[in-house]
Amino acid sequence: MELVFMTVVLGLTISGRINIATLDLECNETDVRLVDGLTPHDGRVEICFNGLWGSVCDDLWDARDAQVVCRQLGYDGSSTAIQQHPVKSNASLFYYLNNVGCSGDEDRLSECEHNGIGVHKCGVGLTISGRINIATLDLKCNETDVRLVDGRLSNANGRVEICFNGLWGSVCDDLWDARDAQVVCRQLGYVGLSISLRRYPVLTNELSLFYHLDNVYCRGDEDRLSECEH
């Protein structure tokens, strides 16, 4: 089915309030992510090793390291900002990297110099602030990728957006149900049996400028939201 633009009033939300015992987020080796942030572009840096997410210590952390993380996450632009702050040492069960030293032109954080995986004397985490000049920084997206934005509680909570023609756009909540939510969770890398969803009205001026999908109908076994009828 062809993706189209449309004007609607409501957005949709998938809630990440899920039974962790039956749901884990798979990660690919040396991937990075931002967690515990106020926006999708803000948070504490974590990196994946041996299938598990772990924190990065803020010792020696500077703008060049932040630039590499931004590049790896798909942010393209000349303006980045970092903000360091202490967090409780139990913010993550694992600390993987310490004394990270990037030149700034690496494509992945794992390519930068560091003390070695798991070698650290660290009691705090680090934060990259996504409060960046949007005029000079754009988030690239791959066709039909999905993401959750504007979540209030975690990275596993938020309004669903899908990428089309290089632009993120919203998904209307008409006909939205648990099967559609299950497909989004699967596409995002969540695996398990327990999911929940919550829909709520939002003002149109708070949403994306574009709506890409409406009347989504998934069987529940699709791998990507774009494979569902719409």
Account of the protein in words:
The chain is mainly β and 230 residues long. The protein folds into two domains: 13-18 and 156-227, SRCR-like domain (Mac-2 Binding Protein, Roll), CATH 3.10.250; 27-137, Mac-2 Binding Protein (Roll), CATH 3.10.250. Helix content is 9%, strand content 27%. The protein has two helices and 16 strands. The strands form four sheets. Strands 1, 11, 12, 13, 15 and 16 form a six-stranded mixed β-sheet that branches. Strands 3, 4, 5, 7, 8 and 9 form a six-stranded mixed β-sheet that branches. Strands 2-14 form a two-stranded antiparallel sheet. Strand 12 and strand 13 (167-171) form a beta hairpin. The radius of gyration is 18 Å and the shape is elongated. The relative contact order is 0.23. Mean pLDDT is 69; it is low at 1-24, 85-93, 128-138 and 202-209.
